[in-house]
Amino acid sequence: MSNLNDTVINALGRLKEAALPEWQALKEKTVILVGAATCGRAAGALPVMQTIKDELARQSIDAPVVEVGCMGSCYAEPIVVVLKPGQPGLVYGYVTEGIASRLVLDYVAGDDPCVEFALAALETHEMIPTFADYPRGQIEQKVVLEHCGFIDPENINHYLAAGGYAGLAHALTLPPEELIQEIKASGLRGRGGAGFSTGMKWETCRKQAEQTRYVICNADEGDPGAFMDRNILESNPHLVLEGLCIAACAVGAQKGYFYVRAEYPLAVDRLKKAVAQARDAGLLGSGILDSSFSFDVEIFQGSGAFVCGEETALLASLEGEPGLPRHRPPFPAVAGLWGKPTVINNVKTLSYVPYIMKKGARWFRETGTPDNPGTAIFALAGKVVSTGLAEVPMSTTLRDVIFEVGSGVAEGKNFKAVQIGGPSGGCLPESVLDTAINFDSLNKAGAIMGSGGMVILDEDDCMVEIARFFLDFTQKESCGKCTFCRLGTKHMLDILERITKGKGRPEDLELLTELAEDIKAGSLCNLGKTAPNPILSTLRYFRDEYEAHIHEKRCPALMCKDLIAFYILPEKCERSCDVCVGSCPVEAIYPNEDRIKVIKQDKCVKCNSCLVACPPQYKAIVKLSPPEMVAEKEKVAK
Amino acid sequence: MSEMVRLTIDGKPIESPAGEKILWAALQNDIYIPHLCALSGEESPFAACRLCFVEIEGYPRPVTACTETVAEGMAVRTRSEKLDRLVRTGFEMIMSNHRIECKTCPANRRCALQKIAKERKWPLKPKRLPALERDLPVDESAPGIIYDPNKCVLCGLCVRVCRRKGLGDLGFAHRGFNRMITTFGDSPLGAGGCLNCGACADACPVGALAARGVWGQA
Fold first, then answer.
1. Strand runs (DSSP E) across A359-436, as ranges?
2. Are strands A31-35 and A65-68 parallel, antiparallel or unpaired?
3. What's the rounded Cα separation, in Å, for the pair A587 and A599?
4. Does B103 lie in the same domain as B172?
5. Facing residues of A589 across strands?
6. Cβ–Cβ below 8 Å for B177 and A486
7. What is the pLDDT of residues A539-573, one digit of tens each?
8. CA distance A64 to A466
C-alpha cells in the first residue's frame, strides 16, 4: 500500500512542481484578473479586458491579464481584481472601459488605488474594507467557490498550484470501501435537489456484481433563475472533474460523462479544455497518477429539455433515446446507463468531494447541522439588490441570505416572497424567513431545497401569476408520457389562467388543491410529482390573493392585465406635458379641453409605456384594480 | 415450471409465478385492476397511464401494479377510498382528453375506457373537468387503418406492437399536452412504411386506431 501511496503522491508532486513556477511568476508582477464568466461577459467584461490590454500595451507595462470566472458577486460585474506585489489585492466592481483605463493609468502605472471604484480589498487595507467587513462576508463561507474568480479556469497549472487534484491523489491511495466510508461519514447529501446521501448512492453502485460501471455529472441545470452549476463549471471546471474522478475511483467506474446543456457554450468550452489538459497531465486515461486506476470522461451536450435533468430521462437521452423518464426502481445505481450500475451526481455535489477527500469528513461536518452538514450554494435572482451566488453554511436563515448576503429587495420595495427550488419548489412568505435553510426544513415549509435557485419577489409580483408562470413552464417541459403530468398540469394551468383573467370560480381553489394532491401522488417521475408545489405553496401562504382574483376580480399586486386599468390622476397631470400622449403606441391617450390627459379605456392595451414615460415629478399615472374603479374615479373627478 | 408465490389481493388468496407483476397476477385471477398501457411480458413496464394503482401492506403510498413484482405473503388491495380517488382523477383526466363518441366508435363495447367506467361505476364524461379538445385531423390515408388522434390516450401500445413487428412506423412526438402518436415527419400513414397489418388497431384499447372495416366505411 505504501508503495502505491508514494507513487501517486510523487506523480502529483511532479505535476505540482511543474505548475508552480507559472503561479509564482505571477506573484512577481502586477496581475490583473478579469471576471469573464457568462455573467461578466453579459455585463461587458470582454471589451473591458481589451481596454486593459490596450492600455497596458500603450504604457509598455508588462502585467499579465488573466481571464477568470465568477466570484459570486454577479451584480457588480464586470469585476476586475488588481494584484500588485506587496499590496493587498483590490477588487473593483461595475468596471466600464473608462474605469478600466483609469485603473491601469492610476493604479497599475501609478500609486492611486482608485478607492472610488473599489468594491473590497482581499486583505486588510487602510482605505478599503475587506469582504469580511461586510455583513455578507460575515455570513458567507466559501468552500466550493473558494477559488472561483481567482484562478484561470482554462489553466490546469493554476488549479494544481492551488492544491488541486490532491483529493484525487488521496482517493487513489485508499481502498474504495474506505473512500466510500469517508463520504458516508461526511454526511454529504446530493445538491441536485433531493438531498439523497451521496455515500449511500456510491455504496449501492459499488456493491453491484456487474463490473462495468459509469459515473455521470448532471449539469443539466434548467430551473428558471438558477445558475450555480454554470458558474462553477465556468469558474473552476477542474474541481468538478476531480470530483467525478474520485466518484469513479470509489465505485470502480471506467468511464464518466458530463451531461451539460448545450445552452451553456462557455461551460462546455472550458470543460472541454479542462478534460484535455487533465488527459495530457495523466489525470485521466490509463494509470491515473501512475496508479493502476484507469478512467476517462466524455462531454455530452443535452438539447435543453428540462426533464432530462431527471436521472432516468438523462440516461435515456445519453443512450440516444428520447429523454423520457422511466419507472424507478431499478435505481440507476443498480441499473443505469446501458443497464449498468451508474452514479449520477450534481455539479455541486461533486465539487464538495475533493475537499472532503483533502480535509476529511470531520472537517466537512464542522459546518452546518448534523443532518445537513456543509454549505449550501444559492443563486440569488429576481428583485434582489445583489444578484449572484451565495455560499453559506447549511442552517443559515432565509432572512440572512436574502437581506444580508443579497442586501435586500431592490428599489426599496417591500419583500413579498422567495421562490426556492424552481418549478418544483415553492414560494415562501415573510413569516417563514427565519427558517434555517436545509433540505428538511424547506420541505416542511412547502418549498424544496432544489438545486439552489432563489428568486426574490416583491410587492409588485402577483402570486397567482407566479404560480401560473411555473405551471406554464412545467406543462411545456413535461415530457407528456404520463397522464397526471401531461393532463393534470394542463388542467391546473387552465384554471390558473382563468383566475388571472378574472374568470375564476369559487370552486376552483378546492379543485386546484385536489388535482395538486393527486398529481403529486400519481405522477411517474419527480417532475410531475413536484409540479404542483408552486400552486400548493402559494395557496397555503397567499390564499387571499387567489380569493381577491376570484371574488372581487381584483389583482392586489396590479400585475394581471385583465384585472387592471391605467388611469391618469387629473390633479397630478401637468397641462404643459404631453409625454404620455407620445409614448402610447395605440393613441389611446388624448388631452381633454383643460389639457388634462385622459386614457380611452377601450383603446388601451395596458402596455405600461405611459406609466414609465410620465416624469417622476408628476407620477400622474396609476394602475387600478378592478378596472371598474376607473369609472368611479371619473365620476368623482366630474 | 417456475416457482409459485402466494399472496392475497383484496383478501383473496392467489398463487402466481415468481417474478410476475401484480397487475398480471390479478388479471389472471379474475381480479380487475384498471389499466391501459401495460403490455404483458415487458421487461421495463411503460407505467404511463397511471391507473393501476394498488396499496400493498407495509408500503407508505400507492404503487402501480404493472411495475411491482409479486412476493410471498404480500397483501394487496385494489380498492380503498384513497385509491379510488387517485385512480378516478387519472381516469377523469384521460376522459377529458378523449373524444367521446361511443355510438359511432369502432371500439364501442370492447373499449378499455368503457370497461373501467363500468367496473368502477364511474361516468364516462367527467363532471368536474372541462373537455380538453385538440381537434386534430383524422388520418384516413391508409387503406386498412384509420387513426383518430383525438381519441388517443397515449398508452403507446401501438408504438410497441409496431416495433415488435419490426416496423417502428409509429412513435411519439412533441411535449406536454401536445404529445401525440404520429409517424416520422408527421407523414400520413398511407404514405409511409405502414403495411396495414392491423397490429396497432388490434392493440389500441380505445378506438383511436381502427381497422377500416370496423369503422363502417368502405
1. 375-382, 388-393, 415-420, 426-429
2. parallel
3. 9
4. yes
5. A599
6. yes
7. 999 999 999 999 999 999 999 999 999 999 999 99
8. 47
Q: Give the three cell numbers for residue A538.
A: 402559494
- Is pLDDT of B23 > 90? yes
Same domain, B130 and B51: no
User: Do B175 and B140 belong to one domain?
Assistant: yes
- CA gap A419, A454 in Å, rounded: 6
Q: Supply the range of the domain harboring residue B9.
A: 4-79
Check A490 against B177: CB less than 8 A apart.
yes
Give the torsion through C-alpha atoms of A224, A225, A226, A228, to 10 deg.
150
**What percentage of residues in chain B have a pLDDT greater than 70?**
97
Query: Which residue of A477, A479, A488 is in closest CB contact with B93?
Result: A488
CA-atom Rg of chain B in angstroms: 18
Q: How far apart are CA A305 and CA A625, in angstroms?
A: 38
Cα-based distances in Å from B82 to A488, B61, B88: 18, 10, 10
Task: Give chain A's residues under pLDDT 50.
Answer: 1
Residues of A in contact with B47 (CB under 8 A): 326-327, 482, 524
List of residues 6+ apart from A538 with CB closer than 8 A: A426, A427, A463, A464, A466, A467, A545, A546
For residue B128, list chain A residues with Cβ-Cβ distance below 8 A.
511
Contact between chains at A521 and B132 (C-beta distance less than 8 A): no
Whether residue B192 sits in one domain with residue B131: yes
Is B64 at the interface with chain A, CB within 8 A? yes
What CA–CA distance (Å, rounded) separates B164 from B145? 18
pLDDT at B1: 52
Minimum Cα–Cα distance from A476: chain B residue: B176
- Nearest-by-Cβ selection for B176 from A322, A478, A523: A478
CB-closest option in B45, B86, B174 to A327: B45
Q: What tens digit of pLDDT does each residue of A606-625 get? A: 999 999 999 999 999 999 99
Pairing state of beta strands A597-599 and B63-64?
A: unpaired
Which of A476, A489, A521 has the CB atom closest to B86's CB atom?
A521
- Which has the closest alpha carbon to A170: A287, A249, A255? A249
* Distance between first and last Cα of chain A: 94
Does the pLDDT value for residue B215 go beyond 80? no
Give the residue, A54 or B43, on which the prediction is more confident. Answer: A54
Contact A487 B96 (CB under 8 A): yes
Interface of A with B in 493-512 (CB under 8 A): 494, 511
Q: Cβ A475–B85 below 8 Å, yes or no?
A: no
CB pairs under 8 A between A and B: 92
Q: Is A310 on the interface with B (CB under 8 A)?
A: no
Angle value at C-alpha A58, between A55 and A63, nearest 5 degrees: 65
Is B91 contained in some domain? no
Q: What is the CATH number of the domain that holds B34?
A: 3.10.20.740
Q: What is the model's pLDDT at position B133?
A: 87
Å between A329 CA and nearest CA of chain B: 9
Domains and their CATH numbers in chain A: 2-134 (3.40.30.10), 164-365 (3.40.50.11540), 375-458 (3.10.20.600), 463-551 (1.20.1440.230), 564-637 (3.30.70.20)
**Could you tell me the CA-to-CA distances from A159 to A15, A19, A68, A517, B212 in Å, in that order?**
11, 9, 12, 48, 68
B62, B110: one domain: no
Identify whether B90 is part of a domain: no
Residues B110 and B198 in one domain: yes
CA of A531 vs chain B CAs: smallest distance (Å): 13
Distance from CA of B216 to the nearest CA of A (A): 31
**Contact call for B175 and A482, based on CB within 8 A:** no
Residue A33 near chain B (CB below 8 Å)? no
Within 124-153 of B, beta carbons closer than 8 Å to A belong to 128-130, 132, 153
Chain B residue closest in CA terms to A478: B176
